[in-house]
Structure formats: structure tokens, C-alpha cells
Specification:
about 110 residues, mainly beta, SH3 type barrels, 2 domains, six-stranded antiparallel sheet, 2 helices, 6 strands, about 45% strand
Length: about 110
């Protein structure tokens, strides 16, 4: 299965009426979901996926140029590294708190 991600990205903004240079709206968004596909222009991320890969729903298309940060929650990242949350969920002695700390870079979860 493709990785589960948190994606931070800049959304286009609109301000009605006259707006000076200092009052331009900016919106930093967060989307959580499974990467369905990616090309040079867009990241396609789904909020719902069928476990065997036969379908998905709640699809968002995020322009690559708007993405400011991607965090892999579980699965394989762009470098081919498998994040231990996947192997640890339900099968190890690691608590959810330990797995979360490991995902944030604070060491190896207990029991893995």
C-alpha cells in the first residue's frame, strides 16, 4: 500500500475588494491521506482507500509547487525506507505513544 502522509501546502487565497501588499491572504493547509499517485505536477492523496488497492475515495489533487512539507505517518517514504509504525502496529509491545515518539525521531520504540 502507498504511504499514509500528512501534507502541508499553500492554498490559493482570495481577498474581496482592494487589498494592499501587506494584507494578502495566505492559507497553509494540512491534508492527511494515502498517496494514490504522483507526477511532476500533482500529488493525488485519498482520505479513504480499499485495503487491497481496488479503489479509493475523497481524492485531493495538490499541486507539487504548493507543497511545503510531507510527513510519512506509515509506509514507505520516497527513499524506500519503511517507517516502523507499520510493522509495530498491533504486532509489537510498543505503545502508541512510543510509536509516535519514534515517528518524530526520538529513538526506537519499545518492543520493536
Amino acid at each position: 500500500m502507498k504511504p499514509l502522509l500528512i501534507v502541508e501546502w499553500l492554498d490559493a487565497g482570495i481577498a474581496p475588494g482592494w487589498v494592499g501588499k501587506r494584507k494578502r491572504p495566505t492559507y497553509t493547509m494540512q491534508t492527511v491521506g494515502w498517496e494514490v499517485d504522483r507526477n511532476k505536477d500533482y500529488l493525488f492523496i485519498a482520505g479513504t482507500v480499499e485495503q487491497k488497492g481496488n479503489g479509493h475515495g475523497d481524492l485531493s489533487s495538490i499541486p507539487i509547487g504548493c507543497i511545503t512539507k510531507e510527513t510519512v505517518i506509515e509506509g514507505e517514504d520516497k527513499r524506500g525506507r519503511v517507517h516502523p509504525i507499520v510493522s509495530g502496529v498491533g504486532s509489537s509491545g510498543a505503545s502508541p505513544e512510543d510509536r509516535y515518539r519514534y515517528a518524530e525521531g526520538a529513538g526506537t520504540p519499545k518492543g520493536d
